[in-house]
Inverse folding.
C-alpha cells in the first residue's frame, strides 16, 4: 500500500516540502517546476539584503548585473571570512 498524503482544503497554500518534491520530480522528468529559479533567487536575495540593511543601519541598493550592493558601509556584511584553514575559491 502506497502512502497517501492527507488532503488539504482547496485554496490551501502548498507545504514547503511540496516544492522539493516537485523539483525532484522535474529533475527526473525534465519538466518545468512550479516555481522558477529566478523567482527563488529574488525571494532569497530580498531577505538577505534586508538583513544586510539592518546590520549596516542603512538603505541597501542592489546592482542586479553584478549582484553587489552599492553602499560601501554595507559591503562588510555581504562577505564571510572563513576560519583557517578553510577558504572559498571561486
Amino acid at each position: 500500500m502506497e502512502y497517501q498524503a492527507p488532503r488539504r482544503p482547496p485554496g490551501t497554500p502548498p507545504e514547503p516540502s511540496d516544492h522539493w518534491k516537485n523539483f525532484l520530480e522535474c529533475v527526473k522528468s525534465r519538466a518545468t517546476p512550479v516555481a522558477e529559479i529566478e523567482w527563488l533567487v529574488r525571494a532569497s536575495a530580498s531577505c538577505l539584503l534586508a538583513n544586510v540593511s539592518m546590520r549596516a543601519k542603512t538603505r541597501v541598493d542592489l546592482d542586479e548585473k553584478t549582484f553587489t550592493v552599492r553602499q560601501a558601509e554595507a559591503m562588510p556584511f555581504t562577505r564571510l571570512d572563513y576560519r583557517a584553514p578553510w577558504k572559498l575559491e571561486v
User: Anything to note?
Assistant: The beta strands are 62-63, 68-69. Residues 22 and 33 are 6 Å apart (CA to CA). The chain has two helices and two strands. The radius of gyration is 19 Å.
